[in-house]
Structure prediction request, 346 residues.
Amino acid sequence: MKKHMLALATLAAAAAMTAGAVQAEERLVVAGYGGSFEDILRKDVFPAFEKQHNVKIDYVAGNSTNTLARLQAQRSNQEIDVAIVDDGPMYQAIALGFCAPIQGLAADDLYPASRYKDDKAVGLGLVATGIMYNKKAFEEKKWAPPASWDDLKDKKYKGMLVIPPLNNTYGLHALVQYARANGGGEKKIDPGFKVFRNEVGPNVLVYEPSPGKMTELFSSGQALIAVWGSGRAKSFAETGFPVGFVYPREGAYALLASVCPVAKPKTSPLAQAFVNYLISPDIQTRLGDAYGYGPVNKKAKYTDDPNAAVPLPVGKRAQDLIVIDWDTVNQNRDDWNKRWTREIER
Prediction:
């Protein structure tokens, strides 16, 4: 009898351990940007959520185009629970049915510009697309800091300029800017391609999409100037690199980093909780301090230092950001990407 009771107790203990292990192994798959953004999430964002919800977050790093492609490839069996992408690809993700409505959204706490139709996504942070440069190198060469988008045409930057490709929002913003400044725009993109082909392209060292590679090119001295976002530039500056960042006089462009719970037959409650967690005042404050996002939550705290190496896109700087016509862009982007590969990165 005692042996029987002991066996039962052993089985019960094993079952309890197994149940605990299963519970501990619950996971949430989040897809989003790599580089410094991933580092900040792992260090300052994930741990508290994982502890509170007894969950392990699996992070899949990639740019917005990569994440959207994964959602499309996994359409019949989505592995991703939460997607973090730029505003343009997010509009596409919503149109393709990949995003579920956000439940429990504290809408009154959010700036209107951060909200999407039917709350199927929400802004995570505001980024300015502008010009980053090596401040120390410019001082040594006695070059004035860049002030205009047209400065990227200056022949003294030949072989020193880096611009992300067109499938990256920073590269897209540059193309739209040159189109707008030369008699075109989103509905007439030819002037932008012409400027890249004849005036900007000759200065480009490489069209680089990887944040890690971008910082390597600057750290090695190969690159001295680039089109990049305020968030990534601020993170780079935090490493001690002499980063300078400019809001060009014609205007910097708005990039709304966005997040949505992925639509599934049974959307994970943890996915909903994580989305709301990301836009909470505390996390918005952390993302502003660590990554340079302009907060989307009105209750987030931030310090506006206009003399910082990378001033945050807040206040007037945020109000002056240029927002592109995403409806037109998304209708034409595939064709533009093909044309870019054929004419610019050939």
Notes: The chain has a mean pLDDT of 91. The chain is about 45% helix and 15% strand.
